[in-house]
Specification:
By secondary structure, the chain is mainly beta. Helix content is 13%, strand content 35%. The N and C termini lie far apart (52 Å).
């Protein structure tokens, strides 16, 4: 409520004015939505043409439960360093956008055919060792034909099973986006006649992913000048 400035003149006798009804101050809009991290930039690189050939010809793809009419390299054991560093500029850009201390845990590629889409999901980790580690998710649109479907992301700070708001994030070819892993998201249907090709990553702050001698996943946290296993 506004403070009323009292002066000597205002204390002198004067005709009484009718009292105004007290009104409740309007509640401020919650800024929780603004605290949800999301960032989008355009990143066009000279390697794009080479990458499309590598993606289509040399990367092993499999069907994935979250893709309707699409395939993914998520469950494929791919060493992305073997392609003469062609993926490195995109990896560095993901880390730069997420934050200087973020490291990529997972890198994979999704290809969605005409008429296909990505189903509703999130990227909340299933690994207990990462539960208290800050994390982010990234996507890069290597090939994004017109009308091939935008990203739909949860925009409700008070998420519950009865109601949830989603906003359409319009994306175009060469767009890179970073967002929080707990946000549910899906894509619109690919209504074009071409494939939609997307790079996706999971990132964590000062944590790297590795494998032990038995092939089990281990997470190594950067601590001063050393790495310690979580």
């Amino acid at each position: 409520m506004k403070k009323i400035k009292v002066t000597i003149n205002s204390l002198k006798s004067s005709p009484k004015k009718p009292k105004r009804k007290k009104t409740k101050p309007k509640p401020k809009k919650s800024n929780l939505k603004n605290k949800m991290f999301s960032k989008k930039e355009t990143f066009k690189h000279i390697n794009n043409i080479k990458l499309k050939k590598y993606v289509l010809e040399k990367i092993p793809f499999q069907n994935h439960g979250l893709l309707n009419k699409g395939v993914s390299s998520y469950n494929s054991n791919v060493d992305y360093d073997q392609f003469d560093g062609v993926f490195l500029p995109y990896i560095y850009k993901f880390c730069s956008m997420a934050g200087r201390d973020y490291r990529i845990l997972d890198f994979w590629i999704n290809i969605v055919e005409p008429g296909g889409h990505t189903k509703l999901h999130n990227h909340i980790t299933m690994f207990e060792a990462l539960k208290n580690i800050p994390q982010k998710v990234g996507a890069y649109y290597l090939q994004k034909p017109k009308n091939s479907g935008n990203l739909c992301m949860e925009n409700n700070a008070y998420r519950n099973k009865h109601s949830s708001e989603f906003k359409v994030i319009k994306v175009k070819e060469n767009d890179m986006i970073i967002f929080d892993p707990f946000l549910n998201h899906y894509t619109e249907i690919n209504k074009s006649k071409k494939q939609r090709i997307v790079f996706a990553v999971n990132l964590a702050e000062k944590v790297r992913k590795d494998f032990d001698q038995d092939g089990n996943v281990v997470f190594l946290q950067e601590y001063q000048d050393t790495l310690k296993q979580l």
